[in-house]
Amino acid sequence: MRRQRKVKILATLGPASSSREMIETLFHAGADLFRINMSHTSHPMLAEIMAAIRTVEKSAGRPIGVLVDLQGPKLRVGKFENGAVELIPDGHFTLDRNTAPGNAARVELPHPEIFAAIAPGNRLLLDDGKIELKCVEADADEIGCLVVHGGTLSDRKGVSLPDSVLPLSALTDKDRADVDAALKLEPDWIALSFVQRPEDMIELREIVKGRAGLLAKIEKPQAIACLNDIFKVSDAIMIARGDLGVEMPLEQVPGLQKRMIRMARRHGKPVVVATQMLESMIASPVPTRAEVSDVATAVFEGADAVMLSAESAAGDYPAEAVATMDRVAVSVERDENYPVIIRAQAAEPEATAADAISAATRQVAETLDLAAIVTYTASGSTGLRASRERPAMPIIALSPKLSTVRRLSLAWGLHCVQTVEAGNLEAMVDRACQIAHEEGMAEYGDRIAITAGVPLGTPGATNMLRIAFVEAQGSRNR
After folding, report:
1. pTM
2. 284: which DSSP letter?
3. pLDDT tens across 162-207, in order?
């Protein structure tokens, strides 16, 4: 199955979409990968969903990526005597370590790390930013606050601290247990929530040990302050605009989105744009015009993937949401302005043979109007380099490793195929030509560009570019 677009669609699975039948429907509607949110998924459920995805993958004959999204630390206030209170602007409210039920003057905050990090002048955002408090005074047991924006505060609402770096790991005990359970099922990506610093990703990497790609979710102002360092220790990035928009001024989020997409391209790492892309389709079969424009903007900017959250996980129209995102992406990529914008955002190649070959391959392929680029990639790094160049023609990523082609399903423009290792150079060229034809990327008589590392099978050693004719007598043995 060949997609008619190069940007990928990541669909979240949930109560509305976890059955094998619905997963298959979403795949055929356009989903390239599936996200499993561990905030709402038990370990037995995780195993069932993974098994269903792999069944659909086998039936479709196409690699399907799976991203396991860790919950991360959840900071919440305690409970109230009557279930809720009304906070009045300019009033005083105290957060403390007293376990007694709260009232209009105070409530428990069962997180000692907050008391250690907060300072006068720091903001506390409650209930997804609907209520804003400002710390006036703080000690080890109480945080006295001025109510800046009031409202109804009920039991166990979330707390965000945009001005404070908390002395806690992004990995909770639950996350560690979820990682252990997930790795037994061989996911392709693991996403870490509420990353504040590169050390958070390094900690996760020490646990995963290369058994899955690591994706950093950027949703904290503290992460923005050290973005470049986080990119260096991550395999992919997600722009989690929901929480980012709670903790930062909303008007800054679009600019940050553009900045992060371009930074990801410079680093040659996939970037996902997420949250509220087609939010109205949770309850409506059609999106708003603004939502369509939002998806289109992410595609025009060159994002590797766009994500559906509640739209596909818990909405009334999961298949329609995926199909809508697919149509918008296809339309954008056919727009006459699309290649101009994509080319204008090109990143300079690094001073390595592999980067030079990838950049030259795009230029040669476009100059000669080749039918496709075929890249052999064992670890996936060559495929990502080819993707970063954003060529006009299809890219076929060939690898003997199923884990590699599944992981690369997140990257822009890569049509991934598992194939056996070629025994010699001529067999490699012959197989590349035949697969390009069988996958519908090239006709007999067309020319394709082939990149690989010589000697064959050497990971990360891309040093060869060859132009080949697709001929009918090519080998059909994969």
Report:
1. 0.93
2. -
3. 999 888 888 999 999 999 999 999 999 999 999 999 999 999 999 9
Residue 413 near residue 387, CB atoms below 8 Å: yes
Is the separation of the CB atoms in 100 and 109 below 8 Å?
Answer: no
Buried b (16+ CB within 10 A) or exposed e, 3-38: bebbbbbbbbbbebbbebebbbbbbebbbbbbbbbb
| List of domains in the chain | 8-72+170-333 (3.20.20.60), 84-160 (2.40.33.10), 348-469 (3.40.1380.20)
CB-CB contact of 264 with 235 (8 Å): no
Are 180 and 47 spatial neighbours (Cβ–Cβ below 8 Å)? no
Q: What is the DSSP letter of 250?
A: G
Contact partners, residue 365, CB within 8 Å, separation at least 6 = 372, 373, 391, 392, 393, 449
Residue recorded with tokens 């194939």: 419
C-alpha dihedral sign at 271, 276, 281, 282 = positive
- Three-state SS for 178? helix
How is residue 100 annotated by DSSP? S
Matching residue, tokens 């509640």: 310
User: Which distant-in-sequence residues (6+ apart) come within 8 Å of 190 by Cβ?
Assistant: 67, 68, 70, 179, 182, 204, 208, 212, 213, 214, 215
Task: Note the pLDDT tens digit of each residue in 32-66.
Answer: 999 999 999 999 999 999 999 999 999 999 999 99
Residue indicated by tokens 């002048």:
121
